[in-house]
Amino acid sequence: MRRESYRDRALVVRTHDFGEADRIIVLLTRNHGIRRGVAKGVRRSKSRFGSRLQHFVDIDVQLYPGRNLESVTGADTVAYYGSGIIDDYERYTAACAALESAERLATAAQEGDPWLFDHLTETLARMQQTKHPTVVLDGFLLQAMTHAGWAPSLFDCAQCGAPGPHHAFHPAIGGAACVQCRPPGSAEVPEEALHLMWLLNHSHWPAALQLVESAEGGHLSTTAHRLTRAHLQWHLEQKVTSLGVMDQT
Ligand SMILES: [Zn+2]
Questions:
Q1: pLDDT for 199-236, tens place per residue?
Q2: What was the pLDDT predicted at 9?
Q3: What is the pLDDT of residue 185?
Q4: Could you tell me which residue ranges the DNA replication/recombination mediator RecO N-terminal domain spans (predicted)?
Q5: pLDDT, tens digit (0-9, with 9 covering 90-100), for 152-195
Q6: How far, in Å, is the centroid of ligand 1 from the Cα of 120?
Q7: How far is the centre of ligand 1, averaged over its atoms, from the C-alpha of 27 (Å)?
Q8: Cα of 183 to ligand 1 centre, how many Å?
Q9: How far is the CA of 212 from the centre of ligand 1 (A)?
Q10: Ligand 1 centroid to 178 CA: how many Å?
Q11: What is the overall mean pLDDT for the chain?
Q12: For the chain, what are the domain ranges?
């Protein structure tokens, strides 16, 4: 097998220290999906590019394929999104959750996805100055699920198509549920929470933020976050299960 080094844009989604001076880096690349690489010697102070191999840096990276791990042989900074994020606890945790979710989505897709990479960098840029980090995270997750083909139905009943608004939600049937279709264990939700998710999924940011800043906004955004996470979790588990089944056949 011919092995040649290649370049790609990437965001660091995880790092682990390895040995005395090396670091294992998990990258979401723009065109090659998730890549795991080792950056040798980067924890030494004279390392040329060690400081760029961290969260929230958009890098132009050079990788050399290896048997298990690739070697990171160079990295140039394209953009730095850390300012405004690393010194703000809420933005930091929401941004980390976006990176972690992007890693899981990219792993489930098993191929390069420039849209996901671009959408993640836009989300980090938005995160740097938002007053509502969790809402920005939910917008990222909803749009990423729509891109993956798992968009929750947020108005019509996901099962029978009866027009909403409805007051129940269950990931197993694909989102909103009417009174006839709601499965046991459905979450009882205010219709405005589903409307907030719909606005976020369609990038109607000003209208979404207006709703979040209304009197009921705190409650609505908490509910929207819970449903978004539940929907993501359910679909990632389905995906992992179906990949496991495919591996066995
Ligand atoms: Zn129905």
A1: 999 999 999 999 999 999 999 999 999 999 999 999 98
A2: 97
A3: 85
A4: 5-81
A5: 999 999 999 999 999 999 999 999 999 999 999 888 999 999 99
A6: 34
A7: 41
A8: 10
A9: 28
A10: 4
A11: 91
A12: 6-80, 130-248
- Which phi and psi (to 5°) does residue 29 adopt? -90, 160
**152 alpha carbon to ligand 1 midpoint, in Å?**
14
How many angstroms separate the alpha carbon of residue 162 from the centre of ligand 1? 5
* Residue tagged 């979450």 (tokens): 187
What distance in angstroms lies between residue 203's CA and the mean position of ligand 1's atoms? Answer: 26
The pLDDT assigned to 62 comes to 95
